[in-house]
Specification:
Helices cover 44% and strands 13% of the residues. The chain is globular. It is of the alpha+beta class and 204 residues long. Helix 1 (3-9) crosses helix 5, helix 2 packs across helix 5 and helix 3 runs antiparallel to helix 4.
């Protein structure tokens, strides 16, 4: 499949067939993510693959945590998102190493890895959806993965630098997103997109 076709035809898939993926298929997807560019070539991504009972446990933890949280409008779709994860045969939780304290450069690298995986998934005749709602239950997921949020010396140094230069340096935690994937059980139409002209300013 040509890259232009993959980019143009990829869709977010939220319904999956009850059909497992092979380990070989998943490795090909992870390998595509691992070939993404990364800031200073530091390879800031880490992948946690959940299947079977482990995936069921992950989803249940997400649901339980959501039940304990206050109901706010921003989270109205979160319960449905966890149902999508429940139906998908595979969920990949994507973590950033945060060796620099979770600065913008790190999350850009990890996002590039996620996009590589989404394109590879589509090229294999599979479907996936990029999930950010897991960020609402980040502490519970990090506890499951035995990952501690640490305040790095580099982050402290950058905060001081930001204060000196009067700029705000963005940070994020270890959890970046999750990817639910499997054999698609729907063929959604692409939502209307803005044209290139509408999103571009030319400077000459």
């Amino acid at each position: 499949m040509f890259i232009d076709d993959v980019i143009k035809n990829r869709r977010s898939i939220r319904k999956y067939k009850d059909k497992p993926l092979s380990k070989e298929q998943i490795i090909k997807i992870l390998d595509a993510g691992n070939r993404a560019p990364s800031a200073k070539n530091r390879v800031q991504w880490r992948f946690h693959v959940f299947q079977g009972k482990a995936k069921d446990n992950l989803v249940q933890i997400c649901k339980d945590e959501l039940e304990r949280m206050p109901k706010v409008s921003l989270m109205t779709s979160t319960a449905q998102t966890f149902k999508i994860m429940d139906q998908a045969p595979v969920v990949i939780v994507v973590i950033q190493t945060c060796e620099w304290g979770g600065i913008t450069a790190e999350i850009q690298s990890v996002s590039a890895a996620i996009q590589n995986m989404l394109l590879k998934i589509h090229s294999m005749g599979l479907g996936a959806v990029w999930i950010n709602d897991v960020l609402f239950v980040e502490p519970a997921i990090l506890k499951l993965l035995s990952i501690e949020q640490e305040e790095s010396e580099f982050r402290k140094e950058l905060t001081k630098l930001g204060d000196q230069l009067d700029i705000k340096i963005g940070y994020s935690g270890p959890l970046v997103a999750a990817i639910a994937l499997g054999y698609p059980d729907e063929d959604p139409k692409r939502e209307p997109r803005m044209t290139v002209d509408e999103v571009t300013v030319w400077h000459k």
